[in-house]
Design a protein that fits this description.
Helices cover 56% and strands 0% of the residues. The longest helix has 22 residues. The chain has four helices and no strands. It has a domain of 50 residues. The chain is mainly alpha-helical. The radius of gyration is 24 Å and the shape is elongated.
Amino acid sequence: MTQQPDSGPRSPPKWVLLAAAVGLALAAWFMLRMYTSDGARECQALYRSARTAIDTARVDTTVTRGSRKQADPPSCGFMRHSNRWQ
């Protein structure tokens, strides 16, 4: 009698694990992107382009188009200080 190798549970192929990891990463990115408002994304871009403290002060008083969709639109400075885009 020959013994047959253990035919227990096998792990999935590496490409399946890779595809699942990429799918989860895309889903997480999509969920985070949907959670951040348009106004907050616009403010982040404005802050990235600000080179001096004066530029940052100008951005602090800016109300973006995305924020204007709200009844009482917050300024970029308000959102930055309240950490609204995290």
